[in-house]
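From the thread on structure requests for the teaching lab: each student submitted one protein with a one-line request. Submission from student K.M.:

"Model Mannosyltransferase from Wuchereria bancrofti, tokens only."
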Amino acid sequence: MGAVAVSVPLFPAIKWNYIAKHWILYGMRLVLGLAVLFAFGHFARQIDKKFGKLSGDFLRLIVATQFHFMFYCSRPLPNTFALLGVLWTYQKILDGQWLCAARIATVFTLLFRCELILFYGCVFIWPVLTHQLSLFGWNGAIVHCLSTAMLTLGISVPLDSFLWRRWLWPEGEVFWFNVILNRSHEYGIQPYFWYFYSAIPRAMIASTLLIPLGALIVDFDFIQIVLWICILFFIWINRWKSMFGMLLAVGVVLHLIVNVIGTSIFLLASSRNYPGGEALTSLQYLRHFSRNKPLSVYIDNYAAQTGVSRFLQWYDAWEYNKTENLEPSQLARFDYLLIGSYTEPDIVNFTARKFFSTHRVLYDIEAFQ
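Reply posted by the TA:
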């Protein structure tokens, strides 16, 4: 559903002009990125209305100087599409439109991220307890959300089934696999504190230091958890009242500078973090003269996870095979192999030894790990 939505604006250009696949990818990512920024802009304007223009400006500055949001806002992932729904939901919540927010939450949970049930459960429990959101009755949340769910599934299931060529509800299969079968660990697990010592610091950079200072603000309408935005706001408006306040204000500015430096480092690292895509692109450039020959390329898991996508499969005459767990004897038939590893320290020599009887190393791509 998400892919169809962001591709619709590109249909006229694709239909009437021959456009290389990677340019279609760029166009689609541009549409998705602009959609996320548009949703964020509306959310920030609600922050302006609710907490003041300065709070909204700090929100924009912090997000703009952090790597994570800007890097991921155009990536065609379920989380990115879900982010659109979360921003839209919060915009309606800040505007006091709880029922509309519940309907939006229902749509994006069913389409893109079933785990949002846990998040939205925490968000909507307060308005339910304070009677700002009625559950029952014809105008209650249950009736509205159920009707929204039926409409959403009525569109999603036929469309996705047509695209996948079998009957399915995509996010339902994710829920079944992760929750009912409890098999999500098959895709890897992280240590218990991984989010605290790795994910959050990488996402927030210097702003991580402000998390312990998060404030619980009580409004007449509802309780809102405001972390670094309110802290920065109060520090800034009181910067001239004392020497300590001035030092804190300098810290606010320095923290934004540190964010920019950290973002620059992450950007450099990420540019070297897609060896699979770079390898496939280089191979197709080098063998451009053979684009109409029936050549075969094997793409292993590492390459597939580091930049290879169908948008980079340029030549219709070539076979691009991603079958997992093939034995070396089964790989012998392929003209080219894209082989990588997260754990092998010397992948070049490892590959040369393993496939010396059938293939030779053409080139290697270094990656940041």
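TA comment: The two ends are 33 Å apart (CA to CA). Residues 215-226 have pLDDT under 50 and may be disordered.
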